[in-house]
Amino acid sequence: MALRVFLLYKKKWNKSMPLLMLPENTKDHPNFFRNIFCPNNQRCYQLKLPQTFGARCWGSSCGWIVTFDLNQNLHMFNPLTTTRIPLPHQSTMPGHDFYDDFFDKDDMDFYELRGLFLEKVLVIQVDDGGGGRGDYIIITIPGQPNGIVTYAKPGDLVWTSIITKEINIEACVKDVVRWGSQIIFLYADGVTGYCDINALNHSNLEPAMLMKYLPPPERFIPPYKVYLLVSFGDLLMVSRHKRCINDEIEDDPDDFSYQTIDFEVYKLNLGTKNWKRVYELDDVALFVGDNTSMSVRASNFSNCKSNCIYFTDDEWQFWDTSEVKGGA
């Protein structure tokens, strides 16, 4: 269950370089150390983070991780300062009754159920100044197509829905990013929607309305995974193509895994409002997965290759069932 954590306060770690928080050993006592791998230094550091024990975690590019524990509690958590800010409980999300009606929590492993609850949680920074509670908007993406995308701010008591308008209601949101004054929502079919950041940065808790923004790139074939990120001012869409691998394990013939076989990168042309296929990233390296996607200048870091895409295993469905891990 890989996770990127971005450390802002350690002077010897540059805040622009993503780190990898390695999976916990669930046999350990909750009062344990987590291994944080630094690709720049090619070594692991240990942090005592009992707050993450048993929780699913999502990393962000602004120093916070979001934890979702076995009691369906969500928190913003800073792994260095150990600051922990409560977020509204999962039961306050619109559409939560869907899970109660269709899933028996007594029969389903809660690790699997959490994947259906939430596929991705993102922390959007409202402004660059200060570190107060009002500086962030948290957006959740459900793990099943008919789920409702929601948002909240630290201090809110409930999650608020984000409503789709003029977009195929069957299309599910796969990623979200802030781009200037807009928050852009990427759908699985390559369509993008948007709303102004001010529509979410208020305290009225009114449902936000998404407007259709752009059609998918020309000849775009929807992959199973698609990501959105801002790279040095450019808005990029990254599609990840995979194939299933049948392992034919004697004791479990249904056990299988998958392999990432290709990436496609598209950049938005501001002049034409069209997506253009990109074949070279030059000095840029991209990092994608179920955490916040990001990019860096590879030449600024050792052990970071330019014109490359780094990715994590983001197929939660197979984490506990397949003997072949990683999806590499």
From TrEMBL:
Residues 40-313 form the KIB1-4 beta-propeller domain. InterPro entries: F-box_BR-signaling, KIB1-4_b-propeller. It comes from the Eukaryota. Pfam families: Beta-prop_KIB1-4 (PF03478). This is F-box protein SKIP23.
